[in-house]
Amino acid sequence: xxxxxxxxxxxxxxxxxxxxxxxxxxxxxxxxxxxxxxxxxxxxxxxxxxxxxxxxxxxxxxxxxxxxxxxxxxxxxxxxxxxxxxxxxxxxxxxxxxxxxxxxxxxxxxxxxxxxxxxxxxxxxxxxxxxxxxxxxxxxxxx
Length: 143
Prior knowledge:
Elements (H helix, E strand, L loop, with lengths): L9 H8 L9 E7 L4 E6 L1 H8 L8 E11 L2 E4 L11 E5 L2 E6 L4 E5 L1 E11 L6 H12 L3
Antiparallel strand pairs: 1-2, 2-3, 3-8, 4-7, 5-6, 6-7
């Protein structure tokens, strides 16, 4: 997993999960390949549900969506559709990433991997939610 430390923006994922993750039990919901770069959108709901069985802190997450960009892709291949992730494997040879996701037959090489966006939905109400409900009730009252 040391290759994950070379991923640009991995600190955003590490802040949430405490470590770089291989996305086991997550789901690829979108794949785009423009001939040069590959973009993945990963829904982490399954990963979170699996981890919350072993660690209570994951119960605060409703979902996490992670978007990744793989730059200068070579030998892009995907067999069939995409979906559940068994593991997102990263190897690095001579500063080239080798990306493999066996569950959907996704394999390619690239020069750089970037976490472009992390969207977090929590189960916890916003800190001002109670105040906002009182203010809303006050504004709607006939004073």
